[in-house]
Specification:
It comes from Zhouia amylolytica. By secondary structure, the chain is an alpha/beta fold. It has 22 helices and 22 strands. The chain has 5 domains: 49 residues, no CATH class; 154 residues, no CATH class; 99 residues, no CATH class; 125 residues, no CATH class; 252 residues, P-loop containing nucleotide triphosphate hydrolases (Rossmann fold), CATH 3.40.50. It is elongated.
Length: 799
Amino acid sequence: MHLNGHIMKVDKKTDNNNIREYLLKYGKHWKWFALSVLMVVVLAYFYIRYTIPEYASNASVMILEDKSSSSENAIFQDLGVFASNSRKVQDEIEVLTSRSAFIETARRLNLNIQYFNKGRIIEPQIYPNIPISVNFFSTDSIIYKSRLSANLKIISNNRFSFNENSGLEEETVPKNYSFGEKFTTSLGEVIITPSPDYISNYIGKTIKMEIKPLDQVAQGLKTKVMAIPTEDNSNVVDIAINSENRQQGNDILNTLIEVYKQNIVDEKTLVSKNTTDFLNDRINLIAADLADVDNVAERFKTGNRLTNIAADADIYLESGSANEQRMVETGTELSMVNFMKESLDTQKSFESIPANMGLSDEGITEITSKYNNLVLERQRLLKSSNEKNPVVVNLDQQLEGLRQSMSQSLDNLSNTLKIKYNDLQDRASRINSRIYSVPGQERELRDIQRQQQIKESLYLYLLEKREESEIATASVSPNLKIIDKAYVVSNTPVTPKKKFVYLAAIIIGMFIPFSILYAQDLFNNKIYNKEDLQKLFPDIPVLGELPKIDDKKEKAIKINDRSILAESFRLIRTNLDHVMKKQKNKRNNNVVFITSTINGEGKSFVAYNLALTLAYSNKKTLIIGGDIRNPGLNLFLNGIPTNVGLTEYLQKAEIEVEEIINPIYNDIPLDIILSGKIPPNPAELLMSDRLGYLFDAVTDIYDYIIVDTAPSMLVTDTLLISKYAGHTIYLTRAEYTDKRMLDYPRELFDDHKLNGMVMVVNDVDTSNFSYGGRYGYGYYGTNRKAKKVKKKRFEKVKI
C-alpha cells in the first residue's frame, strides 16, 4: 500500500481469523440457534417415539453349479460361448427376486391379509400370533385381486363388531357378530373364528384388517428385498430385508428361498418326466413289434412243423453269427438315431429331448446335454420375462444353432450306420450263399429269429434307460445350499436410528437460523459497522465508528461527557491526530473536509461534534459550513447571525475573513463560518480564488479547520474545493449507506481525487459495534460510578 499515515492497518485475514469472525458474527444470535435446535430435537423425539422401528433380517445361500452341465460349460466358457460364473449367479439372483417368486411367497404367508393393533397414532402389525382367522367363501383368485379395509373390535371371546372402511366414503356403521357366524362383506360372505391362545389378549381392543392385491404386496416385497453376491465372482449370495416385524422378515426370506428351491426342483423334474414319457412311448411301440415277430415265429414253426435245426447248417451259421451280432448292434443304434431325429423334428418349440441314449458318437451326447440345459434356462427366464427379452432371444439363437447342429450330426451318423449296415448285409449275403443247401425253412426261421433279437435288444435297452430316468427323477435336488437361514441381525432397529436422527436434528436446528441469517446477509446491501467497511476498503484507514443515538437526546456532546458517543468522537480525534502527525509537513495538514456519498449520512452532525471534541481538548478549532447548497450546521446553532457567511464572502470582495468568523462559545476555543444564503451558482462561487485566500488566512490561526462539505456523489462542489484539504473524512451511515454506492468512494480514492482520504461509520447500533458491541463495549455514564450500557433483551437480527 502507498498510503502514509495509516493509523489502522488492516492485516490480511487468515483462515483462523475468518472462522473467529463468523463465530462472533453468528454467535450474537445464539438464542435463536438454541431455540431452533431445541424445537427440532423435540420434533425428532416425537418422530422416534411414534415411528414404528424396522429391523434387518439376513440370510445366506450358495448357488451350486449343475453337475450335469458343469463339465461341458467349462469347455465353452474359455471360448466365451456361455456365461461366466458371475453372470450365472446374477441370473439366478434375477430368478430368486422375480415377481413370480414374490407372489408365491406372499401367497404362502397370506401377506395380502394383514392385521394391525389400531392405536391413536401408530398401528403396529400383529404377526405371527394373530388372534383371529378370516375365511372368505369367495375363491382365492377373487381375494388375491381385491382390496378391503375393516375394523374389528373384540367385545368378548365370543363376540366382535365389524365395519368396513370404504375409502373416500364414510365408514359403515359397526355391526356385532358372533365368532363363527357367517356375514356379508364387499368381498362376499365370510366367517371369522377366534384363535383361543391369543383372543383374550385383545378383548376391548380394535384390530384393523387390510386386504391388498397379491401383486401389489409382491411388488412391495420386491422393492424391500435385496440380494447381492458377497464378493465378485462369488457363488454366495446375501439376502436382506428390513421389516417392522422381526419374525415376519425372517419368514419372508426363508419362504422366498423355499420357493426358489421348489421352482428348481420342478424344472428339473419336468425334464426327467419328458424323457420318461418319451421312453414309455418307444417301449410300447417296440413291445408291439416284438410281439408281432414272436407271433410270426410261432406261426412259422407250427405251419412247417419244425422242432430242430439241421445239424449241417450249424457250420455255415457259426461263420455268420459274428456278422449277425454286428448287424444287430448297428441296427439298434440306427433305430435310436431315427428315434432322436423324429423327436427333434416333431418339436413345435424348444423342448428337452431324451439324453444319454448310448450313441457311439460322443459329440451328439454333449450337444444333447447342452441343448437340454439351455432349454431349462430359457423356461426359467420366461417365468419372469417374455420372449422379447434380449437374454431369451440370445438363448433362442443358441438353441436353434444347437438343434441344427444336432440334426446334422444325427443325419451324418444315420448315413454312416446305414452304410455300415449295408456292408454287413452284403457280407451276410455272401455267407448265406454258402448255405443254399440248407432248407428254405431254416433260412426263413433265422430271419425271424434275427428280427426277434433286434427287437428284444432294443426293448431291453429302452427299459434300462427308463429305469435310469426314473431314478434321476427321484433324486432331483436344487442347485442351492442354504448357508444361514434368515436371522435378525441385531435387536437394534435400522430405522429410525436414534443417534443419527438426533444428530440430524441438531444439524438442521443449527442450519435453519444460519440459513435465515446467511440469506439476510446475502441479500443485504447495507453496511453495519467498521468491519463491513474494512472488508470493502482494506487499504483505506477507518478512524472509527459512531453509535446510534436517540432522536430525543441532545445531539451535541458536552464537556466531560462520558457517554459512548463522546468516547467514540474522542477515539476518532486521537486517530485523526495520529494521521496528522505522520504527515505534519503536508500542506493544509490541519484542514479536514467531511463529506459523504448522499444526503442523510450525518455530515453536519459529525463535523460539529468532531469540532467540539477538538475544542474541548483546548485546540483552537474552526468549523466551516462548506455545503452552501444545503446548509446543515444551522440546526446546531442558536443566536449566531446567519446573514453573513461563506456565500457572501465569495460573492463580495469587500467582505473580509474576520467578518464571517463567529465564536460559538465563550469558554471553549471554537469558531464557525456559516454557509450563508443559498446562492444560485454554488459551483461557480466555490471556484473563486477567494476561497483559497480564506484557507490561507485561517490555516495559520487555527489548530484544526473542520469543513462540512456537500455530498460528493450528488454534486461536484466537494471535488472542486478538495485541493484545499489536507485530509478528507468520508462518512458512511450504518443501515443506510448502500454497498453498491461505495464503488464511488473507491473510484475517488484510486484516482486521488480526495486528499488524505479516511473513513468513519456513523449511526452504528451498539449491538453491531466492532469491539464494544461484542465485549460489552465498556462502561459509560455521566457520573464517576459508570453505568454499563446493556443490550436490548430482544434485538433486531442484523449481520
